[in-house]
Amino acid sequence: MSANGDIPAIDVRSLTAGYEGHTVLEDISFTVRRGEVFVILGGSGCGKSTLLRHLVGLAPPISGTILINGRDLTAASDSEREGILSGMGVLFQSGALFGSLSLADNIRFPLTEHAVLPAPVLETLAGMKLRLVGLEDCALHMPGELSGGQKKRGGLARALALEPEILFFDEPSAGLDPLTSATLDQTIVNLNRSLGLTIVVVTHELPSIFTIAHRVIMLDPQTKGIIAEGDPRELRDHSTNDEVRRFLNRDGA
Amino acid sequence: MSDHQDKAPQQTHVAWDESGSACVCAISGPLLLPRVADVWRALGTHAFGARADIRVDCAGITELDSAGVAALVTFVRTQKARGHTVTLDGLRPKHSAFIGMLGGEEALVNAVPARPPHRDTAGPVLLTWWGDFRDMVVFMGRTAAGVVSVLRRPSAECWKEVAHCLQLSGPGAVPVVCTITFLVGFVVAFQAATQLERFNAQIMVAQLVGFALFRELAPIMTSVIMAGRTGSAFAAEIGTMKVSEELDAMEVMLLNPYRYLVAPKILASLVAFPCLTMLADLAGLLGGVFVGAQFLNIPAYVFLKESFQNMTIGDLGEGLYKSVIFACLVAGIGCLRGMQVRLGADSVGRAATSAAVSGIFLTIIADALITMSGYML
Ligand SMILES: Nc1ncnc2c1ncn2[C@@H]1O[C@H](COP(=O)(O)OP(=O)(O)OP(=O)(O)O)[C@@H](O)[C@H]1O
Ligand SMILES: [Mg+2]
């Protein structure tokens, strides 16, 4: 834990979020501690992606505040916002690589725009980030030539390029084979252990949850709130909420 | 209908009995898809008193499918919403279980669930216009800021994108622009010749073609072609990036899409449009020359001499000035439509279409305004 370890990495206070005409989440509060892997769970359509979009400042909340490292994202001026966002990396559900740039250029692009680096150093750096996700052989491929899993890993390499302190993943293992998905989980655990990154993950995959998560919250579409919070193993075995136990035990009955 | 007939051989009846305090409606026979329309008509045309107590006797229903369930549930909901009380009686257990499975039980037993607010499609046209206008103002501000930021703080990425756009929109458009303006020049010369023949002033064709092309037709035709070709491509490109979360990714990496996507497209168009317009001028003139030489006995050099003698550099200038304005409009509306894409691949298609149509529309309007203001001043 760093010196200001008592300030949570993310502090969400009575957030109400939604889209024109309807709310998806109502009055939810939670904190993500520094250096933990935090997983957001819930059935399809319960608002996980929506919550994530709010956490990274892509959508303004209807009400409530979101503090990132103690700084208010919701009320920030443009320059403050830039300061807050520069500490974040996001891996989108589909990778969101820029289709007109090669994989290596995708990683170089944000770097050249935010930092002054000599070209050869940039080259090495991009190569290193790609090696981190096992894509060093695909550097010159265009995103269209990559498989779904490779796109996701490419997106991860790009998200890591700007040395974020907090990483967000939207369904990193959706659509991946079990092996690739397990490798990605291992990458997440490694990033968390070796670099001390705070990681927020949206996922459905039970094996992933139990491998990576320190803590989880589970969202519920009926109450539009959080129905469970805590250690996933603890919740699986001892949650008082039936649905939470069934979700974590994969019990459809 | 006929192929459903064997499935529902029995007749379905709806009988009303209003002798008691409650209004009893007995449905008998199979309530299946082919019968639903009839049953619904029988239910819907019945007139109730104020706050009636309606009891639907379902004991006679022999068969029930999802369409039948939907009819029953809808009937209950609408009547409840009108303030009547409705109960379903005598349902067979397997039918009520089926209704429950389809999520209709709630509507049958409890009060009407709140319906989602009805979206009026005709009402907010003005609102969308207002929204469109607001989007446009915001868009213009951000684009201007993007262009300024590219010019003040140029970076390799931006210029690469400019070159990329220029390559896409420039050379590829040359054949179609030249062909079309050649034919336009041809047609204008032909039409003019048949009119001027009456005054024995066929030599004036050269002057007329040159004048019309340089001031009006070349810039307009170029812009119309580019609206269909490039404006829609810009919209599709940006819209696709929006749908695939690439714009979101740019935003969280603090890369301003107006600087890296929109401004380069505008800058590239500012180069491409005037260049293409000049080529269009030449191609159109060639069309005129062709008509002159083939049909009017005006040799090519006489035609060209006539054209250029009567024109000033100002005529060329006006055409190019217009083409610069059109470049901003067509590229701008293309990018705006792309940015307005919200969800789904189908909205990308719509954005592309709308970019082309709006681009053409704006071109013609702007042309009229520019030409008119030229006369007034
Ligand atoms: N752009 C949008 N406009 C309007 N409503 C939306 C939009 N995006 C999502 N929604 C609605 O918000 C709700 C939550 O969606 P969200 O994408 O957050 O779900 P999710 O939990 O991520 O689901 P999944 O696990 O399937 O990805 C859904 O009911 C959806 O219909
Ligand atoms: Mg989602």
How would you sum up this structure, described in words?
The complex is a heterodimer of chains A (253) and B (377). Chain A is of the alpha/beta class. Chain A is built from 9 helices and 10 strands. In chain A, the strands form 2 sheets. A 6-stranded mixed beta sheet of chain A has the order 6-7-8-3-9-10, sandwiched between helices. In chain A, strand 9 and strand 10 (225-230) form a beta hairpin. The mean pLDDT of chain A is 84. Chain B is elongated. Chain B has helices at residues 2-5, 33-44, 66-81, 93-101, 105-109, 125-152, 156-169, 174-196, 204-243, 246-252, 257-296, 300-309, 313-340, 345-376, and strands spanning 13-17, 23-31, 53-64, 85-89. The termini of chain B are far apart. Chain B has a 4-stranded mixed beta sheet. Chain B folds into 2 domains: 13-113, Transcription Regulator spoIIAA, CATH 3.30.750.24; 137-376, no CATH class. In chain B, helix 8 (174-196) packs parallel to helix 11 (257-296), helix 9 packs antiparallel against helix 11 and helix 13 (313-340) packs antiparallel against helix 14. Helix content of chain B is 71%, strand content 8%. Chain B is built from 14 helices and 4 strands. Chain B has 377 residues and is α/β, with parallel strands linked by helices. The A-B interface holds A 21-22, 53, 56-58, 82, 85-86, 88-90, 92-94, 96-100, 109-110, 112-114, 155, 158, 162 and B 116-117, 155-157, 164, 240-241, 244-246, 248-255. Residues 48-49 of chain A line the site of magnesium ion.
